[in-house]
Design brief:
A: alpha+beta; Elongation Factor Tu (Ef-tu), domain 3; eight-stranded mixed sheet; six-stranded antiparallel beta barrel; 17 strands; B: 2 domains; six-stranded antiparallel β-barrel; 26% helix
Chain lengths: 366, 353
């Protein structure tokens, strides 16, 4: 038997208790855009023994490389953003009360009556609301504006909280039957997926993993990461809304669900920021069919992922997005199915194993 | 009780016990009151009555401490696609519900979250106004078939926010209204263990205050107290609440004043607080007290009432907040007041100004 270089696909990754524990740690960590420190530390700790090269760049992105073996390896960038939407303390008032601003897209209507954690020490606080007894019926027809809300840390808070400190919802990770309920599933699910893919990196490619910062405030981290990596192609791994809820009209049908839970990874043909590269869309769909892994095409429309920045870097980078469907993103508690996460991980791994130079040799067309 | 006080309160704060369904919370209070009272009983509609006998000779006058134990919450009105529609039990501002952790008490307890559907699944409106409760949903993370098996219309839904300790001896969570008052009454019973008191002390954890005042109308009929002290939370100063109704947070006991209150009782408590240097503020209730006193006052031939308040921020939200200092102050003030009552004290509860 002749000795030749074996290019191994490696073992297909699965979601077990250790993966769920890692996701729990990632979701409970605070990482509001611009303050991704806690998440970055977890990521660095997880990948330091796996990746061939790890660095933290000027914006705080974690850039990890896992080299493949053999000739003609395609350089594949995988992106997941570390940051989450949250709050910044902007003004200290009397009596333990703090004014705050939202960071990233948060619906103000999701704020009253919630528990939060403030600063590096995760000090517990609450966002209260005026007692219903003191409101009028007409007042209750209007939302409570952000400017009237305060984070209450108790009357004896000292200098440990300052203007500029960040805060998040206090929601703790929880498994509910087949589902995960947590804050920041957007995009810690993606972060955890990238860590697993680094651990199970196929050898036919160079895997360039960007754990990106500041997605929620303008796709900033991913842009510079793509410049640094200079990849041949890129896949943004994110979490996209599943609006698969009943409509108010009992006879009506919900035709605008974006994605469905339990239908597997959501592949982006087009969103508000990117037209998915058809060669990569087809790679994912074909892989799904051949491997029997469920997937869905995200209903084309608005929204966006880091791919929106990546595909326009340098001379252009063929890009696509894949999301784990999740309900209630950007609120105190999102909800996703463990099976959708596992199928996303399996589909990405299987698709990466099929990436060969000829994938991008042809012209970009369907 | 002092060292165990906060754990006991936290245990009460995490126990279900919505208006009309107070069983779980009653069991916890019953356990705490068992060693502190001589007799315990449960009324026909579920209120808990504890009697600690006084030591005066002859017939004992009776003082009633009334604290409601029921909680506001929600009830399932229907199930669609594995998600639940809900309605409120007690006064809930629908604007605080989206994203709220809850527990659905189905065939088993199911943690979940209140969901505000996106605008395109709601009837046409201005787009970003508050979503009415009838359009909110509850998601427990289970697939539709499992939900159908475990949940049915009429099941109760409790707030699910765990209690949190803030700085300055403050505690935050749901149902502090009115479990902090039950805690204060328990503290009072604890303090009376080592004190002589002439009067019989009846402590009631009443039901259905948030809906019908049913407990407060019936227990005093059974007990026939000579005077009644109603303990409830009152409105503390805080965001959106800085008017005459609002007492300083952590600033002392609220002493109710208004038509539900017997003025002689008010004055007696005011005097006692001053004597003990317990901070206290007059809590003005010009029309009605919004407490069990509204019912207790008009039971049978009428009962002189006093309302003691624990200043609380964000009432009826799942992040209600009080200072434990005020809880202890209310407990102590009641214990001292009761220990000072003599068999002829009723003569002073009169209308001679």
């Amino acid at each position: 038997m002749t000795k030749k270089l074996e290019v191994s696909a490696g073992k297909s990754p699965e979601i077990g208790s250790s993966q769920l524990e890692l996701l729990e740690k990632l979701c409970n960590a605070m990482g509001v855009s611009g303050d991704e420190h806690e998440v970055r530390q977890i990521v660095l700790e997880e990948i330091k023994l796996i990746a061939d090269d790890v660095k933290v760049d000027a914006l705080g992105n974690v850039l990890a490389t896992k080299f493949g073996r053999g000739e003609d390896r395609v350089r594949v960038m995988l992106d997941a953003h570390m940051d989450e939407v949250g709050f910044m303390i902007v003004k200290k008032h009397e009596d333990g009360l703090f004014q705050f601003e939202t960071v990233g897209g948060i619906d103000e209507r999701q704020l009253p009556g919630k528990a939060v954690l403030v600063g590096r020490d995760h000090l517990p606080g609450v966002i209260g609301a005026k007692p219903i007894h003191m409101t009028t019926a007409s007042e209750r027809k209007n939302k409570i504006p952000l400017s009237e809300l305060r984070i209450d840390l108790g009357p004896e808070i000292g200098d440990e909280v300052q203007q500029g400190d960040w805060a998040t919802f206090a929601t703790q990770f929880e498994i509910l039957g087949p589902s995960i309920k947590a804050k920041a599933l957007d995009d810690r699910l993606g972060v955890a997926t990238l860590i697993e893919l680094l651990k199970h990196a196929p050898e036919n490619i160079d895997l360039l993993a960007s754990f990106s910062v500041q997605e929620e405030v303008g796709l900033r981290g991913a842009r510079v990461a793509a410049y640094t990596f200079e990849p041949d192609m890129a896949i943004a791994v994110d979490s996209t809304p599943a609006y698969d809820l009943p409509t108010w009209d009992v006879d009506g049908e919900n035709t605008l669900y974006n994605t469905l839970l339990d239908a597997g990874p959501a592949i982006y043909a087009m969103d508000g920021a990117t037209i998915g590269d058809p060669r990569l869309v087809n790679l994912l769909v074909d892989t799904s069919e051949e491997e029997g892994i469920p997937c869905q095409i995200r209903q084309p429309g608005g929204g966006g992922t880091d791919a929106g920045a990546i595909h326009k870097v340098r001379t252009g980078i063929p890009s696509v997005s894949v999301s784990i469907p999740g309900r209630y993103a950007h609120t105190a508690a999102g909800l996703a199915r463990i099976s959708d996460w596992e199928n996303t991980l399996r589909l990405l791994h299987a698709a990466l194993c099929r990436v060969a130079p000829d994938l991008l040799a042809g012209e970009r067309r369907d | 009780m002092n060292d165990e006080f906060l754990p006991f309160l936290k245990k009460m704060l995490t126990a279900p016990g919505l208006s009309g369904f107070e069983g779980p919370i009653r069991a916890i209070i019953q356990e705490a009151w068992e060693p502190l009272t001589d007799e315990l009983s449960v009324s026909k509609i579920g209120s808990l009555h504890g009697l600690k006998k006084g030591s005066a000779d002859g017939p004992h006058p009776r003082v009633l401490i009334s604290t409601h134990m029921d909680a506001i919450g929600m009830m399932v009105t229907g199930i669609e696609g594995g998600l639940m529609h809900i309605t409120g039990i007690g006064g809930i501002d629908h604007r605080i519900l989206p994203g709220q952790p809850v527990v659905v008490h189905g065939r088993e307890d199911l943690p979940g979250v209140v969901v505000q559907p996106p605008a395109h699944l709601l009837p046409d409106s201005d787009g970003d106004g508050p979503v009415e409760m009838k359009y909110l949903l509850v998601d427990v993370g289970l697939r539709p078939a499992d939900v159908a098996e475990k949940v049915r219309t009429g099941d109760l839904v409790s707030y699910g926010q765990a209690p949190m300790e803030l700085t300055g001896d403050a505690i935050s969570g749901h149902t502090l209204d009115n479990r902090v008052s039950v805690a204060a009454a328990t503290l009072c019973l604890e303090m009376l263990q080592n004190r002589r008191h002439d009067w019989d002390v009846w402590t009631v954890a009443s039901v259905q205050e948030e809906e019908t005042l049913g407990g407060a109308l019936t227990s005093p009929f059974d007990i026939r107290p000579d005077i009644a002290i109603i303990v409830d939370v009152c409105f503390a100063k805080g965001p959106g609440a800085n008017d005459w109704q609002n007492l300083p947070f952590g600033g002392g006991v609220g002493l109710g004043w208004g038509p539900n209150i017997h003025p002689a009782l008010h004055k007696a408590f005011e005097k006692k607080a001053k004597e003990l240097e317990i901070p206290a503020n007059r809590d003005l209730m010009p029309k009605m007290s919004g407490t069990d006193a509204m019912a207790v006052q008009i039971v049978a031939e009428g009962i002189p009432c006093m309302v003691l308040g624990i200043p609380l921020r964000y009432m009826h939200t799942p992040v209600e907040t009080v200072s434990m200092k005020d809880v202890r102050r209310v407990g102590r003030l009641m214990a001292e007041f009761i220990a000072d009552l003599t068999p002829d004290s009723m003569e002073k509860i009169n209308w001679e100004e």
